[in-house]
C-alpha cells in the first residue's frame, strides 16, 4: 500500500511540474492538429522497441472524423475490405504530459504529428476529453448543438483534406505503422470515390441548368 501511494504521488508530482499547460481554444487546436476524431478506446498494443522500453500505440474504434477525410467514404472503402475504421496513436515523446485513456470509454481526441517519429499522438495539453455514454449520441448527431462540435464543423467547411499517411486507418491490428502499399491503395480508392461523386454532382448540376434554361425559353414564348 505504501509503495502504491508513493507511485501515485510521483506520477502526480511529475505531471504537475512537467506538464504545466492549459488546453488551447478549439479554433487554435483545430489549426494545429493533424486529425480530430470521436472514438472508443479499445486498448494498447506493443509494436516494437526494447523489452524495457517498448513502443506502444493506443487503438480507437472511430465513430466520427471532425478533421480529416470524408468519413462516409472511408467507411465505404473499408466495408468492401471487411475492416473496421481504426486510428492508432502513439504516446507523446515527452511522457510528462501523457493523456491516460481508459479501455471501452469514449473520447474526442485532438491528435497532432509528433516531430520525433512522424506518427500522430496527443497529450494532456490538448482539448482531448472523455465523453460519457449519455453524451455520445449528442456528440455524434448530424445536428449537434454542442458548441465544441458546432465550432469544429464550421472550421472543417473550409478544409479540403485528403487522407494523410500519418493517421490513415490501418489495415489490421497487427502492426502500428501503415504499409506504404496499403496507404497508396487507400488513397487511390478514396480519390476514385471522390472523383465519381464530383462527376455525378457536375452532371446533375448541368442537367438542372439545362432544364432551367428550357423553362426560361418556354416562358418567353
What does this structure look like?
This protein has 221 residues and is of the alpha+beta class. It is built from six helices and six strands, in the order ααββαββββααα. Strands 1, 2, 3, 4, 5 and 6 form a six-stranded antiparallel beta sheet that branches. The chain has one domain: OB fold (Dihydrolipoamide Acetyltransferase, E2P), CATH 2.40.50.120. Strand 4 and strand 5 form a beta hairpin.
Question: What Rg is obtained from the alpha carbons, in whole angstroms?
Answer: 22 Å
Q: Using the coordinates shown, work out and report the CATH topology.
A: OB fold (Dihydrolipoamide Acetyltransferase, E2P)
Q: Segments where pLDDT lies below 50 for 5+ residues? A: 1-17
How large a portion of the residues is in β-strands, by DSSP E? 15-25%
Please give the largest β-sheet: 6 strands, antiparallel
The DSSP helix count reads 6
Mean pLDDT: 77
CATH architecture: Beta Barrel
- How widely separated are the two ends? 93 Å
Shape: elongated
Residue share in helix: 40-55%
Task: Briefly note the structural class of the backbone.
Answer: alpha+beta
Instruction: Give the CATH class.
Output: Mainly Beta
Q: How many runs of DSSP E, i.e. beta strands?
A: 6
A few lines on this structure:
The chain has 221 residues and is an alpha+beta fold. It has helices at residues 2-18, 26-32, 71-80, 133-140, 147-156, 180-220; strands at 35-49, 54-67, 86-90, 106-113, 120-121, 129-131.
Set out the fold topology:
Elements: H1 2-18, H2 26-32, E1 35-49, E2 54-67, H3 71-80, E3 86-90, E4 106-113, E5 120-121, E6 129-131, H4 133-140, H5 147-156, H6 180-220
Antiparallel strand pairs: 1-2, 1-4, 2-3, 4-5, 4-6
Amino acid at each position: 500500500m505504501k509503495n502504491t501511494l508513493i507511485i501515485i504521488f510521483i506520477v502526480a508530482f511529475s505531471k504537475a511540474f512537467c506538464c504545466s499547460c492549459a488546453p488551447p481554444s478549439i479554433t487554435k487546436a483545430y489549426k494545429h492538429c493533424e486529425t480530430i476524431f470521436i472514438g472508443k478506446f479499445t486498448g494498447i498494443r506493443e509494436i516494437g522497441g526494447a523489452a524495457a522500453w517498448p513502443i506502444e500505440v493506443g487503438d480507437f474504434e472511430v465513430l466520427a472524423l471532425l478533421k480529416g477525410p470524408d468519413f462516409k467514404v472511408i467507411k465505404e472503402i473499408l466495408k468492401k475490405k471487411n475492416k473496421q475504421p481504426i486510428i492508432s496513436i502513439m504516446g507523446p515523446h515527452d511522457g510528462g504530459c501523457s493523456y491516460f485513456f481508459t479501455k471501452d470509454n469514449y473520447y474526442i481526441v485532438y491528435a497532432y504529428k509528433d516531430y520525433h517519429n512522424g506518427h500522430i499522438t496527443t497529450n494532456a495539453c490538448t482539448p482531448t476529453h472523455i465523453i460519457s455514454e449519455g453524451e455520445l449520441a449528442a456528440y455524434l448527431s448530424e445536428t449537434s448543438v454542442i458548441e465544441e462540435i458546432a465550432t469544429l464543423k464550421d472550421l472543417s467547411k473550409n478544409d479540403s483534406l485528403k487522407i494523410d499517411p500519418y493517421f490513415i486507418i490501418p489495415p489490421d491490428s497487427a502492426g502500428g505503422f501503415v504499409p506504404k502499399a496499403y496507404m497508396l491503395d487507400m488513397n487511390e480508392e478514396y480519390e476514385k470515390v471522390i472523383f465519381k461523386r464530383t462527376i455525378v454532382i457536375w452532371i446533375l448540376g448541368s442537367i438542372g441548368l439545362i432544364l432551367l434554361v428550357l423553362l426560361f425559353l418556354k416562358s418567353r414564348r
